[in-house]
Amino acid sequence: MKGAALPAAAACVLLGSRAAEKLKERENLLAAWDASLQRMEGAVAFGGAALPQVLGAGDDPRLPELKQLLERMARSPAAPVEKLLDGLSWNPLLTDTEKDALRGCFTALFSPSLSQQGQALAQAKENWRGFLSSCKQIRQKNARLYLSLGWLGGAALFILLC
User: Fold this and answer.
1) What HEC string does 36-77 produce?
2) What is the reported pLDDT for 30?
3) 3-class DSSP assignment, residue 113
4) pLDDT of residue 72 exceeding 70
5) Is the CB of residue 120 less than 8 Å from the CB of residue 111?
6) What is the dihedral of CA 146, 148, 153, 158, to 10 degrees?
7) Band of the pLDDT at 74, cuts 50, 70, 90?
8) Is the Cβ–Cβ distance between 29 and 59 less than 8 Å?
9) How many domains are contained in the chain?
10) Which of 59, 84, 108, 111 would you call most buried, defined as having the most Cβ atoms within 10 angstroms of its Cβ?
């Protein structure tokens, strides 16, 4: 049993650390979407660009959903937006509410009116800022908790197994 004490304690510490890292990854993902929405809004406001250029302005390697959408648009330019959005592989760190907000934004971007596109992006950005702010608060609160629980659980297991 003594030989298992140190690996078991280390596993607890690693679990707590990994849980804290996941919170940071989620915050970084939401920040990437926020920046992407900002770039897309700029493309609509300043250039009145075509939809592929607007989506391309928001392209980011951390957001494969945008790349998938652009590829689907290139393959089927006349396809309805719902068909293009169906089956996108969303990042598992996004909540259903966040996915729905992005779907709504993308659907509105298919509007022929630049003002509707701009309004959709402004609304999405406003929603996204709320998501990001909430995520930051959760990370700040829970990351320390997960790390502390990992260390505490590791120490407790080490003591119990020794």
Assistant:
1) HHHHHHHHHHHHCCCHHHHHHHCCCCCCHHHHHHHHHHHHCC
2) 93
3) coil
4) yes
5) yes
6) 140
7) confident
8) no
9) 1
10) 84
Per-residue pLDDT at 91 exceeds 80: yes
Query: Which two tokens mark 32?
Result: 């990437």
SS3 1: coil
What CA–CA distance (Å, rounded) separates 9 from 161? 9
Question: To the nearest whole number, what is the mean pLDDT of the chain?
Answer: 85
What type of residue is 78?
A: A
pLDDT of amino acid 48: 64
Mean pLDDT of 99-123: 84
For residue 27, the enclosing domain spans: 2-161
Q: Which amino acid is at 85?
A: L
Q: Helical H runs in the chain?
A: 2-42, 51-57, 64-75, 81-85, 96-109, 114-161
CA–CA dist 80, 69 (Å, integer): 12
Cα–Cα nearest to 102, from 65, 70, 71, 135: 65
Hey, CA dihedral for 31, 67, 98, 92, is it positive or negative? negative
The first and second tokens of residue 60, run together, are 């980011």
| Contact predicate 139/116, CB 8 Å | no
φ and ψ at residue 78, rounded to 5 degrees: -95, 0
